[in-house]
Amino acid sequence: MKNFSKYSVLALASVLFFSCGNSQKGQAETAKTGTEAVATDSLSKAAAQLGKVEFAESAFDFGQVKEGAEVKHTFVLKNTGDAPVILSKVTASCGCTQPEFSKSPILPGGTSDIHVTFKSEGQVGKQQKIITIQSNASNSMTTVQLKGEVLAK
């Protein structure tokens, strides 16, 4: 019986020792999973509260113009998101195309204009100019196009 008691106590001590380690490990994993869930929820809420840029038209076809003519067009964008949108940069794919835009915040449901001027001098043939819009919106980089054909003088 003495031998049995020694072995029983040893076995019981081993079980307690190993189960305590597993218990703490389980608690650490639960805490880690809980923290990750909170972080994921916060990111989801932040993403849901971003602005979103949508254009009334993604491309404008100016048809045919004579070389030397200036083509002007206004692209209207709307903030369909839940937070203000600020345009940080608007660029064109060619120096012959000049965009102008407001840096004022566009409130949810609000609109803003991007005025584009294309100078056709030296640009004979089919044209496709890409205007890239960068902002703090959920779709942080969007594009619109100006296209048409420039006829030689």
CATH architecture group name of the largest domain? Sandwich
Percent of residues in beta strands: 35-45%
Count the strands?
8
Question: How many structural domains does the protein architecture include?
Answer: 2
**CATH homolog superfamily of the largest domain:** Immunoglobulins
Number of helices, counting only DSSP H or I runs of 4 residues or more = 1
Structural class: alpha+beta
Global shape? elongated
Give the strand order of the largest sheet, numbering strands 1, 2, ... along the chain: 1-3-6-5
Organism: Sphingobacterium athyrii
Keywords: Signal
Protein name: DUF1573 domain-containing protein
Pfam families: DUF1573
Structure report:
This protein has 153 residues and is of the alpha+beta class. It has two domains: 1-48; 53-151, Immunoglobulins (Immunoglobulin-like), CATH 2.60.40.10. 31% of the residues lie in helices and 41% in strands. It contains one helix and eight strands. It has one helix spanning 2-48, and strands at residues 53-55, 59-66, 70-79, 87-92, 97-101, 111-119, 125-135, 141-151. The strands form two sheets. The protein has a four-stranded antiparallel β-sheet with strand order 1-3-6-5, with no helix packed on it. Strands 2-8-7-4 form a four-stranded mixed β-sheet, with no helix packed on it. Strand 7 (125-135) and strand 8 (141-151) form a beta hairpin. It is elongated and about 50 Å long.
